[in-house]
Design brief:
With about 70 residues, the protein is mainly alpha-helical. The protein has 2 helices and no strands. The protein is about 70% helix and about 0% strand. The longest helix is centred in the last third of the chain and has 30 residues. Keywords: Membrane, Transmembrane, Transmembrane helix.
Length: about 70
């Protein structure tokens, strides 16, 4: 998705969100037997926050250029 959004400003935040999601997935798969449920929830929460920040950063320049509604 980040590569598709490349022409937009702040597309790097979407790329960073995807990289962190992949890192969390690798950690979960590597330590699946020892992974506690709270850790899965923590990773999911961090991932959702990162994606939300990325989407907000990408959309803010478009809000300013759209003018009043």
């Amino acid at each position: 998705m980040a590569l598709i959004m490349r022409p937009l400003p702040h597309w790097q935040f979407v790329l960073f969100s995807g990289v962190t999601a992949l890192a969390f997935a690798i950690i979960i798969l590597a330590f699946w037997a020892e992974t506690a449920h709270w850790l899965l929830g923590l990773f999911l929460g961090i991932n959702m926050i990162m994606l939300g920040v990325a989407m907000a950063k990408v959309s803010l320049p478009h809000k300013e250029s759209a003018g009043p509604v």
